[in-house]
């Protein structure tokens, strides 16, 4: 990637940057009048900040129910329990932009090699967790027949990857004919499964993106040769280390085939916000 294409964080004082290039003279020393003006401005800002804080507090105290929209009762601000939280580690990552010159290893023609790359991301995604872990879940899960003391579970990230893979396959129906979907004006009954599955996957991914809401900031930077500002997508993100999540799941891979027709009664208490459709 050329230096013009590289991401440069927009940090630092613009005056310092100008000074480094030698494009501007050193700034003049502030006068006593400017110091007084600055002090007055700081004082006004402090007063306004306190007034705003008091107003916000009064609004919260006056109408708490109007501000509450979450349907999960009590302590909804806390992170819901997941046995995989112990594996979470953060790092700074930069995405591949995905255009020529910055493609990811997954951007290749459909092939057995590409299929394997995708499979390696999540093919261990169905996990076995202990009864103690299952009892702490916000939603009840089922015991695994023949594997006493263990319950079946799946981290949503692996379901998301499965779904995205199916959408990818549907985009190349000549290579994956079983995943050819019907178009708006050409519904084909034999493609019903693929069409409904892909529709489910697209909407599931939509909801997941909205739920996690990555707040990393895409920026615009000046391009000297083009004489215009351009969007820079290869920006820094705060990421959970995916390999750590994979390690967690691999350590809990199912050891027996799961038989969903066997019902096991257990004494795990169902949380108050359990959904009946689980």
TrEMBL record:
Pathway(s) per entry: Mycotoxin biosynthesis
Q: Which InterPro entries match?
A: UstYa-like (IPR021765)
Which regions span the lipid bilayer?
39-61
Its domain of life?
A: Eukaryota
Q: Which UniProt keywords apply?
A: Membrane, Transmembrane, Transmembrane helix
Q: Where is this region: Disordered?
A: 1-31
GO-annotated biological processes: mycotoxin biosynthetic process
> Of which family is this protein a member?
Belongs to the ustYa family.
Q: What is this protein called?
A: Tat pathway signal sequence
